[in-house]
Design brief:
With about 450 residues, this protein is of the alpha/beta class. It is built from 15 helices and 26 strands. The strands form six sheets. A six-stranded mixed sheet has the order 1-2-3-4-5-6, covered by helices on one side. Strands 7-8-9-10-13-14 form a six-stranded mixed sheet. Helix 4 (about 165-180) packs across helix 7 and helix 11 (about 310-315) packs across helix 12 (about 335-345). The relative contact order is 0.10. The mean pLDDT is about 95.
Length: about 450
């Protein structure tokens, strides 16, 4: 058996390539939308991808299930569980609790594990060439290393009303029915790691075991005692802000993300051509540098989407459903531009026209920045904390309003368009992303230099 974990550090998302070496067949679970890595794995191992599936209708990224199936001819397998309101709308074979998928000598058994979402499936894998019992459990957003999938995203991102309570109870029941009953040796491979907003305390290790989790995880004693009420209260407490773009991901993953097919290499824009495209509003420059570099000078009206996490920050800073501008990326070369584009398509930011390698010749401005020691004497209309609500609750600058950087572009009605807004996050990275997006949306924004950490240091 071949088992490969493909992990996206940007979105803290894991997909899995599972192959039978004897038969040369493979299946992919929860693929991302840029599929070259899966195709290369198959080719390098002399395998054919025959099946592609996913654990649930994702909210944090666009699924590559249809993309990979279109490129390989693989059979699409998606959940038919969850009831009428949670059915996929694109073509594919529906699978249900107890259904089995054969990949050469391998067998995957679908296990309905609702709670994070109603239709959620996990997959138990048996390597028939070695054993007659499952030893691997692909849990999607059901069980993470040290945590569980949050049950409140349907409320936060999909327009649900108080579905979190029923979802939390479903998670509890799923643990009782489908997890703690498994042998301790079964290895657990989740869909996310630390940094994902799909839970509140995800571990960084790539996998765990049933025995470890049911012994040491925070939820273990609740399940052991049958304390559903205590479990529900702790699971729902302290969940981070859901990113606003999650709602779009949920809708598009249910209907089926557009198939990109073979994408032509991005072309380089000359400075004059880029300047003209930016001037007429048909394009927007994406400054991929650090906040410190952007504060020295950047292109007027540009977005700041740092190259460290381009998918995450693109999802925060640009809404392709409301903005039809094409993006021009600042990149070192064509290879770097292509890498950035591969990341942005993971959150449905597809309309990238090309790249520039320098800001020379483009109209530049210096963003407004305020030193923290000058905050008390400064004149402004709103002090805006763009960190998560959990960070805000742990400590914030007096008088600040909290609105997460991951949501601010979708909640501009809460902000004044006539006054000056001073923004901050923890260190300045998220703040620069949010501030650039707000400036492009027409707001007068000044960033607090060094953000909360610099302000807090003044008190020492």
């Amino acid at each position: 058996m071949l088992l490969e974990r493909l992990y996206d550090e940007d979105l803290a998302q894991a997909s899995y390539f599972i192959g039978c070496q004897a038969k040369g067949e493979a299946l992919v679970i929860d693929p991302r939308r840029d599929i070259a890595d899966y195709l290369e794995l198959a080719e390098s191992n002399g395998m054919r991808i025959t099946h592609v599936t996913e654990t649930h209708i994702h909210a944090d990224y666009l699924s590559g299930t249809r993309e990979l199936a279109a490129a390989t001819g693989a059979q699409v397998l998606v959940s038919g569980e969850g009831g009428e309101d949670w059915q996929y709308e694109f073509e594919g074979t529906r699978i249900f609790d107890g259904d089995e998928i054969s990949i050469g000598n391998l067998t995957l058994k679908a296990v309905h594990t609702p709670g994070h979402t109603p239709e959620h499936l996990s997959f138990l894998l048996t390597d028939g060439a070695f054993a007659d019992e499952p030893a691997y459990f692909f849990t999607g957003d059901f069980v993470f290393a040290g945590d569980l999938g949050r049950p409140d995203l349907l409320d936060e991102a999909a327009g649900g009303i108080d579905t979190r309570f029923a979802g939390a109870r479903q998670v509890f029941a799923s643990l009782q029915r489908s997890f703690v009953t498994l042998p301790d040796y079964v290895q657990v491979y989740p869909a996310h790691g630390s940094g994902s907003a799909c839970g509140k305390a995800l571990g960084s290790v790539p996998f765990t075991t049933v025995g470890y989790e049911k012994t040491f995880a925070w939820w273990a004693h609740y399940v052991k005692k049958g304390d559903e009420a205590g479990f529900v209260a702790e699971l729902l407490e302290g969940q981070p802000d859901a990113h606003a773009y999650f709602g779009r991901m949920k809708r598009q993953n249910r209907s089926g993300p557009a198939i990109l097919g073979q994408r032509a290499p991005l072309r380089e824009f000359g400075s004059r051509e880029a300047a003209d495209a930016l001037e007429d509003g048909s394009h927007v420059l994406v400054d991929t540098r650090s906040a410190d570099a952007v504060h020295q000078a950047t292109v007027k009206g540009s977005l700041n989407i740092p190259a460290t996490k381009p998918a995450t920050y693109a999802g925060w800073a640009f809404d392709p459903e409301a903005d039809d501008a094409a993006l021009i990326l600042l990149a070192a070369d064509q290879e770097e531009a292509q890498r950035l584009w591969n990341h942005t398509v993971r959150v449905g930011v597809d309309n990238v026209a090309g790249y520039v390698t320098s800001l020379a010749g483009l109209p530049q401005v210096t963003p407004e920045v305020l030193d923290p020691e000058d905050l008390d004497s400064a004149s402004y209309d709103l002090l805006l904390d763009v960190r998560n609500k959990t960070e805000y609750a742990a400590g914030h600058i007096p008088g600040a309003k909290q609105l997460s950087a991951a949501r601010v572009l979708w909640q501009t009605a809460e902000l004044s368009r006539t006054g000056r807004i001073v923004t901050y996050c923890q260190t300045g990275v998220r703040n620069a992303v949010a501030a650039a997006a707000l400036r492009r949306a027409g707001f007068d924004v000044t960033e607090l230099k060094g953000s909360y950490r610099a302000w807090e240091a003044l008190k020492d």
